[in-house]
Amino acid sequence: MSKVHAAITSVGGYVPDYVLTNQELETIVETSDEWITTRTGIKERRILKGDGLGTSYMGIKAVEDILNKTKIDPKEIDLVICATVTPDMPFPATANLIAQGVGADNAFGYDISAACSGFIYALTTGAMFIESGQYKKVIVVGGDKMSSIINYKDRTTCIIFGDGCGAVLLEPSKEEVGIIDSLHRSDGSGAQFLNMKAGGSLRPASHETVDADLHYIYQEGATVFKFAVTNMADISGKIMEKNNLSGDDISWLVPHQANKRIIDATANRIGLTDDKVMMNIARYGNTTAGTIPLLLWDYEKQLKKGDKLILAAFGGGFTWGAVYVVWAYDSK
């Protein structure tokens, strides 16, 4: 009996209209286009503007993109998982708001919080529901409204992050396509280097925490960079070794878009040339849980059935991981 794999059968995405360029950031903080581009590879990022618009708004748009492409009745969706660190509210789950917004009335949903690794964690989790035979249609969303937790007086973080959201549809397949294998890791000792210090149960919101700017991202860039370069590259190499893959076998590296130097280091570690590396960091910056599904969305028309992909990410916490995917369809 053939094993059931969870295959990605459609991809959707959404990025806001407003473009925040490096040139505009030069008017906000002490920085320059040359400084940002040299260190990160980012030229611009998208920002979600408008009252009452949170991560669920972008998630709904991304899932609607899938529904429009596939013509699937949203009532057929069994489960929605949303990876985000910027939920609309602490509860209910943003996944539930997305499901309600697209008319997925028969689905249940929940959120996964793993920072920039959130999407690949959620993808692996969603795949298990398919592989078990329990569900037939699972939507995995990854997205963040990072502008909601960015201090635009802090040039070390405001230059990096943007807003955006992507989503994939998982369905069962008995072919050798889909989510083939994954490796995930975490290290809580990294919490001190990349975090948001207030707003949780440890330090609930108060006048003091707001006045002290503790509800924004805090990052020790040099330390995070060192950990990310090493661990994202190593985990990508390990999953390839585990599955007896060489660089020649891989069609695409789908790396988290945090920093071009980290992406280049990962590609070099697993023996891939630039033409096999998906990249849109220059246009979107770091959308946290949104980067990997947005890459798949941007590159969907270039993907062919049977293409072997390595998805890799590193995020706050620390969290990191890699997923080996065989693409399931030829794009139309």
Describe the structure.
- The protein has 332 residues and is of the alpha/beta class.
- It folds into 2 domains: 5-176, Thiolase/Chalcone synthase (Peroxisomal Thiolase, Chain A, domain 1, 3-Layer(aba) Sandwich), CATH 3.40.47; 180-326, Thiolase/Chalcone synthase (Peroxisomal Thiolase, Chain A, domain 1, 3-Layer(aba) Sandwich), CATH 3.40.47.10.
- The protein has helices at residues 22-26, 33-40, 55-70, 94-102, 118-131, 155-158, 207-211, 221-242, 260-269, 281-284, 291-299, and strands at residues 5-14, 18-21, 44-47, 79-83, 108-112, 138-145, 163-173, 178-186, 194-196, 217-219, 252-255, 308-315, 319-326.
- The model has no long low-confidence stretch (mean pLDDT 96).
What attributes does this structure have?
332 residues, Peroxisomal Thiolase, Chain A, domain 1, 2 domains, alpha/beta, 13 strands, single chain, four-stranded mixed beta sheet, five-stranded mixed beta sheet
Count of spatially separate domains:
2
Give the name of the CATH architecture of the largest domain: 3-Layer(aba) Sandwich
CATH superfamily of the largest domain: Thiolase/Chalcone synthase
Low-confidence stretches: none
Count of DSSP helices?
11
Distance between the termini: 31 Å
Shape: globular
Mean model confidence by pLDDT:
96
The run of helices and strands is EEHHEHEHEHEHEEEHEHEHHHEE
User: Biggest sheet, strands in spatial order?
Assistant: 1-7-6-4-5
Helix content: 25-40%
Instruction: Please identify the top-level CATH class of the largest domain.
Output: Alpha Beta
Structural class designation? alpha/beta
Largest sheet: 5 strands, mixed
How many DSSP E strands? Answer: 13
Predict the CATH topology of the largest domain.
Answer: Peroxisomal Thiolase, Chain A, domain 1
